[in-house]
Design brief:
By secondary structure, the chain is of the alpha/beta class. It has two domains: 53 residues, no CATH class; 184 residues, 3-Layer(aba) Sandwich (Rossmann fold). Helix content is 54%, strand content 12%. It has a five-stranded parallel beta sheet with strand order 2-3-4-1-5. It binds adenosine-5'-triphosphate (ATP) and magnesium ion.
Length: 241
């Protein structure tokens, strides 16, 4: 390995700089070094951002770019700018997205998570049943503490599809533990098609349901997705065309 390549590797400057340095125009040595360090830093930031997006484990990557906000009805406490910049994350606030199928809940939650990654936040996306089965497995193998500790490193946790599948008694308890750990420390985005008054049907226990709802709603913004069903509209327009 050539010396230059070797030290780029040892300093973790990335391969890009080896491809870019010959095209740099500079006035003097100091200018050259400044530009090299600047480019290396920019490349490092891109790598970090890509890693955050990978670690978020979004199911399907959706962004604001192809999100139509015409039918989005935000509460007074929110606006699109706040969602895009993730200012609610700084304040450890939660978002609860409620509405029928195909209304864009998962799309918007993912787009917010993606933007948060771009702004340096660490994000983790879960379908609720996946989180529950990982929690149950961690508990069975004696790794629950470690698993919960790992969750604590995220700034924003997206819990998609709450209530679509029953959680079971143990699942509900573990879900509560995650919510309690996040309360006033992290931000959550929860998507659901079950209205609050019926959440007891998800957790099957009145006390746990109240405790969960209390913690989620205390610093939470509820967004009701009343718009039309995108999946249906697209399917119908495909059939008709
Ligand atoms: N406002 C929107 N702008 C652009 N595409 C949208 C919008 N709303 C929904 N879609 C698209 O429609 C499809 C369904 O949306 P999404 O998965 O977000 O629905 P959902 O509300 O999460 O439904 P479910 O409750 O069944 O999970 C996706 O492909 C999504 O990208
Ligand atoms: Mg969804």
């Amino acid at each position: 390995m050539e010396e230059l390549e070797l030290y780029c590797k040892k300093l973790r400057l990335g391969r890009e700089i080896l491809e870019e340095f010959e095209d740099i125009e500079f006035i003097n040595n100091k200018d050259f070094l400044t530009q090299i360090l600047k480019k290396s830093y920019q490349n490092l930031e891109i790598r970090r951002k890509n890693r955050r997006i990978r670690d978020a484990k979004f199911e399907i990557l959706k962004t604001f770019e192809n999100f139509d906000s015409k039918e989005l009805d935000l509460p007074e406490t929110l606006n699109l700018h706040k969602l895009k910049t993730g200012s609610f994350i700084e304040k450890n606030e939660n978002l609860i997205f409620y509405g029928g199928s195909g209304r864009g809940k998962t799309h918007l939650a993912t787009a917010i998570g993606f933007e948060a990654c771009n702004h340096g936040k660490s994000v983790r996306f879960f379908k609720v049943p996946t989180l529950i089965s990982e929690l149950l497995e961690a508990r069975e193998t004696g790794n629950l503490g470690k698993y919960l500790k790992k969750l604590k490193k995220f700034d924003l946790i997206i819990l998609d599809e709450l209530g679509y599948v029953p959680l079971g008694e143990r699942g509900a308890e573990l879900f509560f533990q995650v919510i309690a750990d996040c309360y006033e420390r992290k931000s959550l985005i929860i998507t659901t098609n079950i209205e609050f008054s019926k959440w007891v049907g998800i957790f099957m226990d009145k006390k746990i349901t109240t405790a969960i709802l209390d913690r989620i709603i205390h610093h939470g913004h509820v967004v009701i997705f009343t718009g039309s069903n995108y999946r249906m509209n697209n399917a119908l327009s495909n059939v008709n065309s």
